[in-house]
Every structure is written in C-alpha cells, then in structure tokens.
Amino acid sequence: MARIAVIGAGMGAMAAAARLAVAGHRVTVYERAATYGGSLGRFERDGFVFDTGPGLLHLPAVYRDLFVKTGKEPLERCVRLEQVDPASRHVFADGTDVSLPNASRGGVVAALDAALGAGAGERWGAFLNRAGDAWDRSRRPLLEEPLRADLEALGRDPYPAPRRRRLLRTARRASTVAEVGAWELADPRLAALLGWYALGYGLDPRRAPASAAVLPYLEQTFGSWYVRGGMRELARALYERCLARKVEFVFGAEVARIVEKDGAVTGVELADGTAAAADRVVAGIAPGRLLERAPYGEGDDVAPRVPPPGAAGEVGLVPGRFTVLLALRGAREAGAAHRTVVHSPDTDGEAAEVFAGRPAGRPTVTVLRPDDPGTRPDEDHEAVTLTATVAPHGAAGSASAAGSAGSAGGGGSVDWTDAALRESYADVLVAAAGAAVPGLAERLLWREIGTPADTAARTGADGGSVPAPALAGAGGRLLHPANSPAGPAGLYLAGGWAHPGGGLAHAGMSGALVAGLIVEGADFRGSR
Q1: CB 192 within 8 A of CB 112
Q2: Which residues pair with 226 in a beta bridge?
C-alpha cells in the first residue's frame, strides 16, 4: 500500500483518487478551495441554482465505468441522468432556426435539410461519416492509452478529408476546421455550426486541425446528457464515492511545493509550511510552479516522452469562459430547448478577436435553460445561464498550457476585473440571448457575472483559461503532457491540463489512466 497525495479535488483528480483507494492505497486529497469539484461549481441565490461550469455531459460511459469499478452502486443510482432532446437549437445570423435531435443521425440530417435547404443535411451527414473514421483511427491511442513515446502517429491528422479539385492548380484537402466548413460543408451556417464546436472547446477554428471533427461526432453519436439538480450533482456523487472508499480530503490546503529527493517525489509542502509525506503524488493541476525543475524534462533524450504545452508548434493563448447567470420572473415556456446557440454574424471575426486577446464585439452565445425544478424557487421563475468563449484574463499569448491551435497576430490584453467591462460585456450577451429567451429584458430580476478572472481566482488556472481536449494532428501541438511525465519519479498528472485534455469525459479518462499507471506500472497498456 502506497501513500498517495493528490493535489486538487477536480473531477480528474477525484476519479484517480477513487480508483487508487479501491486498489488499496492510502489517498489524501489536498484542495486549495473550500470545496470539491473543480470547474463543476454551483451558485445559489434566492432559490435560484446555477451550474458555473460545464452544463452537459457527453460520453457518460466514462463515469458509468468509474462508478462500476469503485463500488456497488452504479452511476444511475447516485445521480439522475437525462438525455436532452433536442440536443441543441441553433439560431443563425440570417434568422434561420433549427433544432437538432439528440443522438439521431437521420434526425439531424432531416432537420438541417428542412431548415437550411435540400442537400445541407446530406453534406453534414457525409462530414460526420468522415469524422467517425477519424474517431475510429484515433480513439484508443488518443484517449484510452498512456501517451506513447513515439508521437509521430498522433501528430498526423486522422480526418480523411476528400481531395478538392482546383482549376489549373494542385488539388488540396482541408486541413483546418475553417477549411472543412468552407470547402466540404459549403454553407456558412453549417460552417458556423462546426466552428461553434471548436471555439466552444477553446480551439481556434482557423487553425485547429480537421481532426476536431470528432467533437461534433461524439456529441451527435453518443448524445448529450444533463444531471438532474445540476451538473454539480455529478461532482457530489464522485466526492461521496471517494469518501466511501476512505479517501481523505483536506480543504483550504494549498500545495506550495512538491518535495523531491534523489530524483523522486517524497511528498508535498503546504502553503502554511506543513509537510505531508507521500510515495506518489498526483497533480490535478498544471504542476510547473510546484517543482524545482520542469516536469516535462529537458533535452532531446526525454522530450519524446512528454510533449510540453505547444511543443510541436506555436503556443497561443488558451481562452476562458464569460458567463452571465440570469434570475428571471415568469415560467419557462413549454417546449423550450435546454440549450440554444445564438451564432455570431461574423464567426471568423469572433475567432480573430478572441485569439488576439480582445473581447469579441459580437460573440456566439450559448443559452442553457434546464427544465429542472431544482434550479428555480418555483414554477413562476426560471434560471438561465449564458456563456461565451473569450480571451483569458491578462496578456494575450500566454503559454500556460496546451489546448490552443496557435494564434497569429494579436497582442491584446483583457482586464476582466474591470467593472465597466464586465457589465458592458454582460449586456452584449444578454442582448444576443434575446433571440432565444422570449421577453428576456422584461423578465430579468437580477444577474450574476463570471469572468476568466474569477476562474483564475477560484481554480488557480493561469488567466482563467479552460483546457481543450487533446486532438491528433497539428504536428502534435494539441496533445497534453503525459500522465507520467519525465520527472521526478512518482509524479503523475490528472485532469484537464494533462493527457487526454479538458472536458468532463476526458477528465474521467485521465483519472483512469493515472490509476492504471500507478497500480500496474510499466505493464499498463490502457483502459479496457
């Protein structure tokens, strides 16, 4: 039995902690905040309840496996999972309005044909078939196995873009999300739909590899799920599972340093000077500032083992999230979509502003309206959350972590603590959301604003950035640091800043990989 110190109580870290405790290890989690859950936060006021992080779950099989492997009660006995249908409603700048059914390829094709014109659904369906090929080619090495020493295969884009003939010029294949949208989807609204998936995950559609096609494929194939009572309930269930497995939690305990001796970890030192011995350390945060030397290794002999953030390409800024929580009087109308996306009239311009480190003047806004009595004081009120992807707090071009496909130009800086900017930008989101919520302005009781600066203060993430999921292609620059880095020995990485990257499902996968590496050692070949 090993003593294991886990830094952070985010979903990836807790997923690792629960699995390690079941394997017989003594696990202690040190969390700087007063509670668990990481990005799965909650805000409550006057009977209104809001999620402050992810609003939906994709690939719930990841957490079903976690709960099966760590106890007798399956996930569905601990939380109530509900499929969201329609999966999303999309309002485009030209007034086109389309609702896409949940996990129904035929239904999506039919809905797009009806709303966008004959042929639109067929083009989207053909694109999803190619995205499925990319998923099949990259799924296991990208998501279910420890990061390989040979990164060449994952550096190649698995998306089978069709060759595009050009008059008197060499034929080309789309290599970026933007090119897929322009060349293969051939409709600005379909291109905006694809671009929304990329930007929503913090990727620049103009530079993100075509392999980002797996993001809409995953959602439209495996579905979108909501946890009754709010997504925070998933964090609660995992925390309680950890407690049931005898994991110890120490809150308000910021780790100041990972202690090492003779090239191996020996424990952690807290900000108050307290030392805690450990045989293994699992960092659920980017650990660079906690070590005396870079965790990604130095020199050509170790570089292939772990790609540091942006190792294979230019490192750009990693966006954050701007949220507005709205308490509304009046009942939610029957049949309202759980999630509505109000698309920017200038999606290319939006990406250019975000990745230049400036507030986008006309952002794409995602509107969440859960039909959940647990989120509102009574049936005569409604809780609504607005979200937009924005530049992080502080200077642009921060090389804090992987997840951006790079950014050209820019040099901007956003101070999200500026009260006037916070309020004016919230006004921008509220104005856009009027296309999704009838009578929004007249129904507003109060609002609460969250920015990347708030995320940074709460989680410690540089600039309040939110990590993107790892992607194959782009020369490997969208891969994240391996779960077992170059050094020191006994250090492991879990959560969004490690392989396989950001997102709830990916966090659960990282926890499984870390537990496998610690329990099985060099013999571990991946999750099954």
Answers
A1: no
A2: 82
DSSP state, 329? E
Beta strand pairing call for 275-277 and 255-261: unpaired
List for the chain the helix, strand, coil content (%; round to 5).
Answer: 35, 20, 45
- Three-state DSSP string of 428-489: HHHHHHCCCCCCHHHHEEEEEEECHHHHHHHHCCHHHCCCCECCCCHHHCCCCCCCCCCCCE
Looking only at the bridges linking them, the beta strands covering 26-31 and 365-368 are unpaired
pLDDT, averaged in runs of 10, over the chain (528 residues): 96 98 98 94 97 95 97 94 97 97 96 97 98 96 88 90 74 91 96 97 96 97 96 98 98 96 96 97 88 59 39 62 98 96 96 95 97 97 98 61 34 86 98 95 97 90 93 93 89 95 96 96 82
Q: Is the dihedral of CA 182, 185, 189, 193 positive or negative?
A: negative
R_g of the chain, CA atoms, integer Å: 22
Phi-psi region of 451 (alpha: psi -120 to 50; beta: other; left: phi over 0): beta
Between CA 515 and CA 378, with CA 239 as vertex, the angle to 5 degrees is 145
Cis, peptide link before residue 500, omega less than 30° from 0? yes
pTM of the model: 0.92
Instruction: Please say whether the beta carbons of 353 and 360 come within 8 A.
Output: yes
Count, in order, helices (H) and strands (E) of the chain.
15, 23
